[in-house]
Amino acid sequence: MQKFQSIKGFLFDLDGVITDTSIYHEMAWHQLADQLNIPWQAAFAEQLKGISREASLAVILDSTGKHVDYSEADKVAMATAKNDNYLKLLQQLTPDSIAPGIEALLVELKQAGYAIGLASASKNAPIVLERLGLSDYFEARVDPATLKNGKPAPEIFERCAALLGLQPTECIGVEDAQSGIEAINAAGAISVGIGSKEVLTKAQICFEQTQALTLENIRNAFH
Ligand code: BG6
Ligand code: MG
User: Fold this and answer.
1) What Pfam families does the database record attribute to this sequence (predicted)?
2) pTM of the prediction?
3) Distance from residue 199's CA to the centre of ligand 1 (Å)
């Protein structure tokens, strides 16, 4: 692991880190699965974190084991239906929905001179940040529509570091998804997981809760 002193920037995932929208994604997919008469599986909750809308739909459709050849138009309609469900749920978001400790961390990082970037797979990220009132903290944001490969590929974290003018090795990535932790590790950044150590087994540093995400705790976790 590189030294804490070499860190110059932080690359944040959004859903499940900055706010708990991962539960809204899950609810919106669950609603779609019900409409399609596809049985919901408990394992979807973790599997769908971090991966794109299209990849998520593929996981759900593949789970039936029927391998029906849906047309592109059918798949677009299904993904759009899920997103409509999701957008309705997002209407509940306010600055009170910011995960505990996150705004304090962003303030602390800004004051300490760290660069801050957003590495979210969500095309709804601008709406979410706007509703939370956090848009101004992020000096760089990756547009997921421009990526060839989603998480667990390292591309999104590599791009985010480059947009900040940094090497990935000079950055810490913060993630709640296994796919995201793998992407951070593959990029060569330091991975900080938010959630259970049993799930985020590949995280170099892991905190159960966002409250624990302080600069001091992160610095102390380096070895
Ligand atoms: C990620 C979520 O942040 O964004 C995934 O963890 C989601 O669950 C992905 O599928 C894409 O989001 P969106 O908003 O573009 O459908
Ligand atoms: Mg996430």
Assistant:
1) Hydrolase
2) 0.96
3) 19
